[in-house]
Design goal:
Blueprint (H helix, E strand, L loop, with lengths): L1 E9 L3 H8 L12 E7 L3 E8 L2 E12 L4 E6 L5 E11 L2 E10 L1 H8 L4 H24 L3
Antiparallel strand pairs: 1-7, 2-3, 3-4, 4-5, 5-6, 6-7
Length: 143
């Protein structure tokens, strides 16, 4: 498994950032490739993800670590992905959002296509960085 960690500092209080991460239906606004997303029963989410011109359905389980401001997630089928979002207050009006992604490079490539090796790692880093930047814009504009 490979692990990627990225973070972004957002200009909103931690409660606003936390609430925004839990609105799965808004993920298409800041997560590349997500065309539709909805919350389902018992901490599950369903996402329609477009990659390489094809739409794939992805289901994931979400859970919160009580009081820690950490949201863990894991896909329930292929591709096998897991990760977390953790939030730390910087001050009253600023929050650090840390994204962690754990993935098997070969499985990810088989499912979504794309480059191999170092090029794949670089592409995933750029994608996660872009998603975090889009989240920053989304949450700071108060959409």
């Amino acid at each position: 498994m490979s692990t990627l960690e990225e973070h972004v500092d957002v200009g909103v209080p931690i409660d606003k950032a936390w609430d925004s991460l839990h609105r799965v239906e808004n993920y298409p606004r800041f997560v590349a490739g997500v065309r539709d997303a909805r919350t389902e029963a018992q901490g599950r989410a369903h996402l329609d993800v477009e990659t390489g011109g094809q739409v794939r359905e992805v289901d994931a389980d979400f859970s919160d670590r009580g009081g820690e401001r950490v949201m863990d997630w894991q896909t329930t089928g292929a591709p096998d992905l897991m990760g977390s979002f953790s939030l730390q207050p910087i001050d009253q009006n600023h929050t650090r959002v840390q994204a962690r992604l754990e993935y098997d490079p070969d499985t990810l490539r088989e499912t979504f296509g794309g480059p191999k090796g170092f090029a794949q790692a670089t592409a995933i880093e750029r994608l996660v960085r872009s998603d975090l930047d889009q989240f920053k814009e989304y949450v700071e504009q108060g959409r």
